[in-house]
Design goal:
264 residues; mainly alpha; 76% helix; 0% strand
């Protein structure tokens, strides 16, 4: 491999190492903006950032990713210690989901069950980015926000599976996208985005979203549905395709944050 190609590969790898965590923090800040809680980068933001990196890299086959995940344990534990006690306890739920997602060595985890894998990913992301920033007393009122966020992430997770379907097939990993096929998977993703849009409409009538936020939210969902289909016609590195899918979370979050901050 040419030295420049090696450098490029490493740079892309380092970007991806932190990119997913940045997306998680921004989705969490989206919830804080909607709830009027301010956008300060506090102990919770550090916890979400470091725990996401740990969760996505601790079991990687790449040695440098495992070491990077290990280094995240220090800020992860530091930030957890500085969280309110109810958040320290609440974190157990997404942590449990992460554990059963991968499973005990030699045993099946949720990632091996095609119909449950994307649900587990969606619920974990929704719990971390919707419920954790809120007071426990507000969780019930924000349940539909959580369901809408989970549906959005579920659709994106199916996009990941579509991109990985060739590699998953070679490794003998059964996924929902591999079972349903491309067109059926896209239809399921569109249904998920539609559910997320309906949830947003409900949240608007409940006063949690403004009408302009609703318009932006629905636009981001429509763009997500279009992008997943467009990705399948695009030839390029899988890593960049995944970055593009994750960028939909960033686009939605920034639009909502800017809209709320601008008093729209």
């Amino acid at each position: 491999m040419h030295p420049l190609d090696t450098i490029k590969t490493w740079l892309v790898g380092l970007f991806l190492f932190a990119w997913t965590a940045v997306c998680a923090v921004l989705m969490m800040l989206q919830t804080k903006a909607l709830a009027g809680l301010g956008l300060g980068l506090d102990a919770l933001a550090l916890f979400v950032f470091s725990s996401t990196i740990f969760a996505y890299n601790a079991l990687s086959q790449a040695t440098w990713r495992k070491w990077g995940a290990a280094l995240m344990l220090a800020p992860l534990l530091y930030s957890w210690w500085h969280l309110p006690w109810h958040l320290q306890l609440s974190i157990a739920a997404p942590g449990f989901l992460w554990g059963i997602y991968h499973g005990i060595p030699g045993k099946l985890g949720l990632r091996d069950l095609p119909w449950l894998k994307p649900f587990a990913v969606a619920l974990a992301w929704a719990a971390v980015t919707v419920w954790l920033p809120l007071a426990a007393a507000d969780w019930l009122r924000w349940t539909v926000v959580l369901l809408g966020r989970a549906a959005f992430v579920f659709g994106l997770a199916l996009g990941y599976d579509l991109i990985d379907r060739g590699e998953d097939r070679r490794q003998g990993l059964r996924t929902l996208a591999g079972i349903l096929g491309v067109q059926a998977t896209l239809r399921v993703a569109n249904i998920a985005f539609g559910i997320s849009a309906l949830a947003a409409l409900f949240n608007t009538f409940e006063g949690l979203y403004s009408w302009s936020v609703l318009v932006w939210y629905v636009f981001s969902l429509a763009l997500s549905a279009w992008l997943l289909r467009w990705q399948l016609r695009r030839f390029g590195p899988q890593q960049w395709q995944k970055i593009t899918i994750d960028a939909l979370m960033v686009l939605q979050a920034l639009g909502v944050i800017i809209g709320v901050g601008g008093g729209l």
